[in-house]
């Protein structure tokens, strides 16, 4: 067998393993949003406290993602991308098994914090490996597959949570992660990283992103273009029972169902965005188109008085599709920086986007105290969209960019 064929086979294996890893990652990441009401009821949380205590737990998870993004990003650049894949999945698998044993909100929050640290490493390391290993003309397809397959983990989480208890759903998530470790054995390090490893250069210095103004702004813009996605998932869909009441829904809306269909939409959107960026040869145009679709879909959702379950499902699909530029966003972040801090950026950027749910939640609550829940959501949509579009306008096109370089 020729070296080319061996290389192609290894690349395919790498993409499959990264996709399955992200599948488990998304399953565990979203499980709390799906089982929030059922699990809180079982541990004694009152109906009146469901929303606020839910925000507390998910914010602790997001705080873990913020911290974990930095930790795993630095490890990825200093010790290698593959080590991050092993370490992160082991940590969040153990944490999710422990999550099935919680008996109080504080214990719940602490374990979600630990799980968040573990969950922070998977996507960044996987996308970095795929981006550095695949041909620059085709790497968009690789990251598209990783995200498209991975996001179906949300549907699996919803199905398991529906068929079994919330404790079993957490146990399954942890078990899937431990099984995935067996597949990691065949994963190989990227050639670009190996080449940089033997050079006398500084690798994995997180502070490098802040010591140069131009580099810092580029990093900040990479983060800001992805923020609208987590507003949709973390607020509009996760709090769909509360939005349903405000919209005089024909029957109570289910956050679990909403999350599942939103992530169906995101998976389809990721594939569409990946193909669109390859055809147009432009990541920036792709993100702009999907940002416009996001605004349209949110306005349709917030204007759905008397919303029915079927309309809710279709709107979740549409909103999910519209914010389905997640893989393209992460790929942009990966392509903007040199090999010596690429894993740091690609791991921290999506987790800072996820972590942005913390200030988004506080801002949303601020407006909610002054207005109603629908008006507060409109205000947040306007603010986040303006910020994201401005950030996109400041980034250079990265399609077809050679990634074999370092940051000085």
Describe it:
This protein has 408 residues and is mainly α. The protein has a single domain, classed as Growth Hormone, Chain: A, CATH 1.20.1250.20. Helix 5 packs antiparallel against helix 6.
Summary of the model, kept short:
With 408 residues, the protein is mostly helical.
What are the main properties of this structure?
mainly alpha; 20 helices; 0% strand; disordered N terminus
Helix/strand layout:
Elements: H1 3-42, H2 50-78, H3 81-99, H4 105-119, H5 122-133, H6 139-150, H7 153-163, H8 166-184, H9 191-197, H10 208-211, H11 213-224, H12 227-237, H13 240-246, H14 255-280, H15 283-302, H16 309-322, H17 326-335, H18 339-355, H19 357-370, H20 373-394
Helix pairs in contact: 1-4, 1-5, 1-6, 1-7, 1-8, 1-14, 2-3, 2-4, 2-18, 3-4, 3-5, 3-8, 5-6, 5-17, 5-18, 6-14, 6-17, 7-8, 7-14, 11-18, 11-20, 12-20, 14-15, 14-16, 15-16, 15-20, 17-18, 19-20
CATH superfamily caption = MFS general substrate transporter like domains
State the CATH class.
Mainly Alpha
Task: Give the N-terminus to C-terminus distance in angstroms.
Answer: 40 Å
Report the C-alpha radius of gyration, rounded: 20 Å
Give me the CATH fold name: Growth Hormone, Chain: A
**Beta-strand content bin:** under 5%
Find the structural class using helix and strand composition. mainly alpha
**How much helix is in the residues?**
over 70%
- CATH architecture assignment: Up-down Bundle
> How many distinct helices?
20
